[in-house]
Amino acid sequence: MPRHIVYRDMTLRACVAATEVARRAVKFVARNTLLPARLRVKAQLELNSFPRWTRPSGIRDRCVLSGRGSQIIGDFKLNKNMFRVLAKRKQLPGVHEFRPKRDDLRQLEIVQEWKTHHNKMKALGKAPSESGLRLKGNR
C-alpha cells in the first residue's frame, strides 16, 4: 500500500484530535434547544467554518500493517488478509484454528445425510416426510 495514504491518514487523525474539543463545544451549543436561536445559528455557522479535514467522520479504519482501508477486523485493526497470514503463523494472541469436536462432526454428518435424502425424495416427487427419515432431535 502506498505510504502517502498512511501519512495522509496520520495527519488527518492529528488534525481531528487537535480540534476535537473546540468542535464538540461548538456543536453542543448549536444543538442545545434551551439556548436562544440566534446563539445557536451563530454556533452552527462557526461549526461550518471549521476546515473539512477536521471532521471526525472523515477518519476511516485502516490496517496498521498494510494501510488498506477495506475489510478491517476491528479488534485487531488488521485487514482480513493480514489477519489470516498472522493467524496461520500463530502470531496473534488468543486466535487459534477452529477444530470441531467429535459431537459437532457427528451432528454435521446427520444434517448432511438428511439433506441428501431430502434432495433424493424431492427428485422422485415424494414428500420428504413420507420417507420416514428424520433428524435425531425431531421425534
UniProtKB/TrEMBL annotation:
GO terms for biological process: translation. One of its GO terms (cellular component) is mitochondrial small ribosomal subunit. Residues 119-139 are annotated as: Disordered. InterPro entries: Ribosomal_uS14. It holds the Pfam family Ribosomal_S14. The keyword Ribonucleoprotein applies. GO terms for molecular function: structural constituent of ribosome. Keywords: Ribonucleoprotein, Ribosomal protein. PANTHER family: 30S RIBOSOMAL PROTEIN S14 (PTHR19836), SMALL RIBOSOMAL SUBUNIT PROTEIN US14M (PTHR19836:SF19). Belongs to the universal ribosomal protein uS14 family. This is Uncharacterized protein.
